[in-house]
Every structure is written in C-alpha cells, then in structure tokens.
C-alpha cells in the first residue's frame, strides 16, 4: 500500500517507513527512468532529511564511481569511513583509491575493513575490485581467486566477469576464458557493441574471440567504476550515462499480465 497509519492518526507514505538504506536503494534504481542528475539531486534531499544517515552519501559516491568521478567518490566514502565506519564506506573508498591508481592504499583500506568486520561478506564488491587490482599488479592466481568468488556469489557482476576473462586470457586458460566470454556476451551485448566500436573492431554484440583483449579493456573503460551486480552502467563515446539492465522489464510484464 502507498500509505500507512502511524499512531492511528498520521497518514504517511509507506516508503518513508523504510530504512534509509532501503530508501537509498530504491532511489538509486530510479536511474532506470530518470536522468542521473535528477537521481543525485534526490540523494541531496535525502541527505538533508536524514543528516545522521550515511546512505545518501555512500549511494551518491557509488554513482560518482560509475560516472568516473573518482576523486569525488573518494572524498565522500573516506568521510563516511571516518565518521561512521560502515562496510560500504571501506569498500567504496578502497574502490575509488584503486581507480585512482593508488593500489597499495586500496589494498590497505580493504584489509582494515576486513579486520574491523572480521570477514568480508561473500557477495560484497571488494572481491571484484581487489581482483582487478591484483590482476593489474600481475598477481594472477590471487586475482583469479577473488574474481571467481565475485562471480560465484553474484553471477551478474559484469565487471568481475570481464576481469576474470582478462586473467584467463593472460594465463592462457582457454576453457575458462571461453566460459567467461560466453557469460559476458549473455549479460552485456550493448556494452560489447560499444566497446567493439571504441576498440576499432567491427561492431558486434559478442566479444571477438580472435582479439578479445582490446574489447574487454575498452568495456572496463566505458564502465568507469561500475562493478555492480545489479545496475550496470557505462559512459558512451558521446559522454552519455547509460544504464544496461533489462530485469526491470519483468516487473512491467508481470503487471501487464
């Protein structure tokens, strides 16, 4: 129901009875039908309404990662880490540091977070981001372990599949590479089309098996800092912020039926 009773007297929107994290998650999903600037403005309003909550700030930072605004994302998440010490704050600040090329600081931040919470959640994005850093450092076995965990726990995390494909390509593990490429083709045909064009390859919705590396690397560049398992975004060659997932169409189909 869109409205609920409070104390048998006050009628309020049911959404407002949800936690700030639930509200922030729902609002971030408005990227499916609103311009990114409007979604960010909504988070500003949420931050003003709930000044003690970190969620409006950390979800804003996540979108800034997706847009490629890594310094802004780091400022927000580092401030939230210092102020609140939440799990997403160490994940996000480490991700921003990694995307800024500050690999040692990123690895240190994630380790500090692990010690604080004693363990990582099985599905958290740290495995994907850390796996990418380890790949770039040439530590392929460690990278593979993290990226396999990331894809096992969240099979729709496109960024993890792309990084895993690059690891297996470098290691010459053809069967594992093909499995990763097939999953990428299934999850992200639009992204691969755009990445193929950016890599000066013939446009295609499937990764070119003859020369996969440039397409995969350009796909990561287009995705900026998006390593999500739910909302997949990229910035195209015209600077447009684009949202990939089509799972929301199931809701409309169910409603129509």
Explained architecture:
It contains 13 helices and four strands. With 257 residues, the protein is mainly alpha-helical. β1 (3-6) and β2 form a beta hairpin. α9 runs antiparallel to α10 (174-187) and α11 crosses α12 (212-223).
In short:
The chain contains 13 helices and four strands.
Question: Topology of this protein?
Answer:
Elements: E1 3-6, E2 10-13, H1 20-28, H2 36-49, H3 55-67, H4 70-83, H5 87-99, H6 103-117, H7 126-136, H8 140-153, H9 158-171, H10 174-187, H11 189-198, H12 212-223, E3 233-235, E4 241-243, H13 248-256
Antiparallel strand pairs: 1-2, 3-4
Keywords:
single chain, 257 residues, mainly alpha, two-stranded antiparallel sheet, 13 helices, 4 strands, 5% strand, globular, disordered N terminus
Sequence stretches where pLDDT stays below 50 over 5 or more residues: 1-8
Distance between the termini: 20 Å
Strand content: 5-15%
Structural class: mainly alpha
Radius of gyration: 19 Å
Oligomer: single chain
């Amino acid at each position: 129901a869109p409205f609920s009773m409070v104390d048998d007297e006050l009628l309020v929107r049911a959404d407002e009875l949800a936690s700030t994290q639930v509200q922030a998650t729902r609002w971030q999903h408005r990227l499916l039908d609103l311009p990114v600037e409007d979604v960010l403005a909504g988070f500003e309003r949420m931050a003003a309404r709930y000044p003690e909550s970190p969620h409006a700030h950390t979800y804003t930072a996540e979108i800034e990662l997706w847009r490629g605004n890594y310094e802004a994302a780091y400022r927000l998440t580092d401030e939230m880490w210092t102020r609140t010490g939440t799990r997403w704050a160490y994940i996000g600040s480490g991700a921003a540091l990694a995307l800024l090329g500050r690999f040692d600081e990123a690895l240190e931040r994630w380790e500090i977070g692990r010690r604080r919470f004693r363990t990582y959640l099985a599905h958290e994005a740290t495995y994907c981001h850390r796996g990418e850093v380890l790949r770039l450092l040439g530590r392929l076995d460690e990278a593979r372990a993290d990226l396999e965990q990331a894809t096992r726990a969240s099979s729709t995390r496109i960024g993890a599949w792309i990084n895993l494909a690059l690891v297996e390509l470098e290691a010459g593990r053809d069967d594992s590479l093909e499995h990763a490429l097939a999953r990428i083709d299934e999850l992200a045909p639009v992204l691969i089309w755009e990445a193929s064009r950016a890599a000066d390859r013939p446009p295609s919705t499937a990764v070119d098996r003859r020369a996969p590396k440039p397409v995969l690397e350009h796909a990561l560049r287009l995705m900026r800092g998006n390593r999500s398992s739910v909302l997949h975004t990229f910035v195209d060659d015209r600077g447009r912020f684009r949202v990939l997932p089509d799972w929301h169409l199931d809701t409309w189909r169910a409603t129509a039926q």
